[in-house]
Amino acid sequence: MSTKRKTVAVHAGAQLTGSKSQPVVPPIHVSAVSFFDNSDELDAALDGKDYVYSRIAAPNAALLEEAVAALEGAEACVAYASGMAALRAVFDVLNLKQGDVVVMPADGYGVTRSLFKNLAVRTGARIEALILSDASAPERIVALRPKLVLAESVTNPLLRVPDIRALSRACREVGAALAVDATFPSPYGQRACELGADYSIQSTTKWLNGHSDALGGTVSGSREKMAALRAARLLGGDVLGPFEAWLTLRGVRTLPVRMKAHCEHALHVAKRLSESPLVARVHYPGLPEHPDHAVAKQVLEGGFGGMVAFDIKGAGRPDCFRFLEKVKLARAAPSLGDVCTLVMHAASASARRMTPEERQAAGIGESLIRVSVGLEDPDDIADDLLAAVAEAMQR
Length: 395
Prior knowledge:
The protein is an alpha/beta fold. 41% of the residues lie in helices and 14% in strands.
């Protein structure tokens, strides 16, 4: 089969291995348990060689894993019940111990930071938060000699873009594992494993699903590393349900078409916002004035993503809350990747779990709005955002 992404998205994960039946749409396999007339076949299934118990392996999740691995350009993939479960699985599988260092983005998703801080307390590991898009980040990694580096392909919510290739070289030098949360660009926009990541993580709830109707997460990488994750999942039970897997695979079919439009719309909206005197700053890596624009052109494929953030000039939290109430086309919701435009106040949502000091160090201010740009007409989206800003800032 072709390796071109549009073709892979439509056809990968369409047929179960060993079956001659070829349904156009894979069915939903709801049975958690299967039986065998032959005891040897049952015994083999209990080792994961067939489907017998959905905590071990399940048909719909297996089809999704095949499709995501193909999109990521990875050897294998493991699916989880949520993106957070996928992140935790990577932390846990490395068996970190007292004194081990974990590097993560200081300006990344606040809930991930909270999760890793809690896990570090239990294991005795030490968290070091760095701005990984800074040119000095690889040198800092070498000096810290961590066991794990977690990066975000595009940071949430400030949309900074680290050079994954440079981070990978630093990790290789000190023997650190590099995990990349590549949710924001999706596999359409970046294949993190091809840039040197050991683990590429997706919250499939977002762009891969594309319709806000199924939670899920995936980790992709080498067969060896995915085998270790799969073995741990068998015991931990963080499995993805059949309905969620089916819905997500349905979304995967249109990922390249949707993401192309999301990227085009986001760039248009970012340009419109940057022209407004009510907007202090627009954060979008597709704009030439973005600090990581040059890096983004090298590490992001097919566009600069569907996320935009902007600071409302002179706004505080009450003003931003009014903005959320004034939008008419967009919807105030703490997620992203839907066909409709979603907006949120970053400090009270994606950065909610961060301390005020952590938000200040990251540069996440009270005036920051994050936008997941949808598939509506981009001028309608921009008009809606700008009208809401104007209404919110009326004194």
